[in-house]
Design goal:
This is Zinc finger MYM-type protein 1-like. By secondary structure, the chain is an all-alpha fold. It has 4 helices and no strands. The chain is extended, with a radius of gyration of 21 Å.
């Protein structure tokens, strides 16, 4: 005879995941959501992107953070 495993941990994890996903959906901007949808739809083309080159290009951009206290 065995005892059934509890599902409380799984349920807590699922509800936490739903809250995080809902928060992300609410805070994501329309243009970013649109970009992510295009990447998803065009996944075969997106898989051909050289990520190392994209990261290098991004690292050359001007820093956008400014100190709050000068």
């Amino acid at each position: 005879m065995t005892l059934p495993a509890t599902t409380a941990t799984n349920e807590r994890f699922s509800s936490s995941l739903k809250r995080v996903k809902n928060y992300l959906r609410l805070t994501i901007k329309d243009d970013r959501l649109s970009d992510l949808l295009v990447i998803n739809v065009e996944s075969t083309e997106a898989s051909k992107i050289n990520l190392d080159k994209a990261v290098d290009k991004f690292s050359l951009l001007k820093e956008r953070r400014y100190p709050l206290i000068a």
